[in-house]
Amino acid sequence: MRNQKTAGFSTRGVHGGRGFSGTTGAVMPPVYLTSTFESGNPDGFDYTRSGNPNFRLLQESVAALEGARHATCFASGVSAITAVVSTLRSGDLVLAEENLYGCTYRLFERVFAKFGLRTQYLDLSQTANWEAIPRLRPALIWLESPTNPLLKILDIEGISRAGAAAGAPVLVDNTFASPYLQRPLELGATLSLSSTTKYINGHSDCLGGVVATNDAEWQEKMIFAQKALGLQPSPFDAWLTTRGQRTLALRMERHCSNALELACWLEKQPGVRLVRHPFLRSHPQYELAKRQMRGGSGLIVIELDCSAEAALVFCRRLRLFTLAESLGGVESLVCHPATMTHASVPAEVRRKVGIGDGLLRLSVGVEDVEDLRSDLEEALQAVLQRSES
Ligand SMILES: *Cc1c(COP(=O)(O)O)cnc(C)c1O
């Protein structure tokens, strides 16, 4: 058999994170529910805040999926973001893409700004804006691709090259793509961060975050943040995530095919003003998405020709798509950004960045696509009839 490094993605997923069988022959690892370890043990564990066999297994398996030398696991995606930002100093500048996950923005502006962190937001899909990088000399460039919630695609390779030329490391929040579809480190990024809560775990039963890197210095800083800031996950959550990632390749294949089929169908439906999916030809960065990603992932953004109230009627009529925040699980979810994830953003700002009252984000699960389509069809008809009456 080929070794861990050269094996295919699915093989790495299934066989990663299976050590520590000891003398029992257990095919799958146990959960190490222990806060502390006897001093002098050969594996070098001391206290679970600074390491646990379940963290080590998860870190090895995610590193293998990301094609990275190292990975560090955290209690949530937000913990992983905190770990990275905690390495910066007062006065440092983070140059961030303007379309950013809301909790990342909140951490920058409401927590780290108090400690002197500066931020500048630019539309990084415009290559002309990359020219600001050498002038601003950011300590870190922060981007997501695809972005939340509008699924904008950013050129990771191009931005990483521009960052490297100015000595600025690039972090990619890879949550929406997952390492199956996109591996930022191979495209030149320094750090690839994921909320494993979403696709990597994939079963909506625990939170987690991970930062992968090839850079030994960054890895040291991440391990330090894990223990010094108390950002470690529970061993059980690390175990769940290690189990979840074994089927990442299979799940992503189905998420991608279901989402693309539904997106194509939705584009033809009356009452649907806009459909966004990275692998639709109508997507503004379709060519880039095709080049950078192995599939379009499982998210679709649609804009219904209706009020916020009618959009919520649509959501409540759906039986297979649950109205809930989050994404990336085996089950389908629907989210109404104007009243949920982006409710705290003023209406005119929302509209300016393209989050209208009729905008909905679908996280397409791995159910049978025919069932998902008829669910959407019935809910669409309910909204259309409502607007006619
Ligand atoms: C959910 C999410 C996060 C935060 O992750 P949690 O696990 O919820 O803390 C960060 N970035 C993106 C893009 C996300 O979707």
Topology of helices and strands:
Elements: H1 9-15, H2 53-66, E1 70-74, H3 77-85, E2 93-97, H4 102-111, E3 118-122, H5 132-136, E4 140-144, H6 156-165, E5 170-173, H7 178-181, E6 191-195, E7 209-213, H8 216-228, H9 235-245, H10 248-266, E8 272-276, H11 286-292, E9 299-304, H12 308-317, E10 322-323, E11 333-335, H13 347-352, E12 359-363, H14 369-388
Helix pairs in contact: 1-2, 2-9, 3-4, 12-14
Bound molecules: pyridoxal-5'-phosphate.
The site of pyridoxal-5'-phosphate (PLP) has 15 residues, from helix 3.
How is this structure best summarized?
The protein has 389 residues and is α/β, with parallel strands linked by helices.
Q: Could you describe the 3D structure shown?
A:
The chain has 389 residues and is an alpha/beta fold. The protein folds into two domains: 9-247, 3-Layer(aba) Sandwich (Aspartate Aminotransferase, domain 2), CATH 3.40.640.10; 248-388, Aspartate Aminotransferase, domain 1 (Alpha-Beta Complex), CATH 3.90.1150.10. It is 37% helix and 14% strand. The protein is built from 14 helices and twelve strands. The protein has a seven-stranded mixed beta sheet. A five-stranded mixed beta sheet has the order 8-9-12-11-10, with helices on one face. Helix 3 crosses helix 4 and helix 12 crosses helix 14. The longest helix is centred in the last third of the chain and has 20 residues, at 369-388. Pyridoxal-5'-phosphate is lined by residues 76-78, 101, 103, 144, 148, 173, 175-176, 195, 197-198, 207, 209.
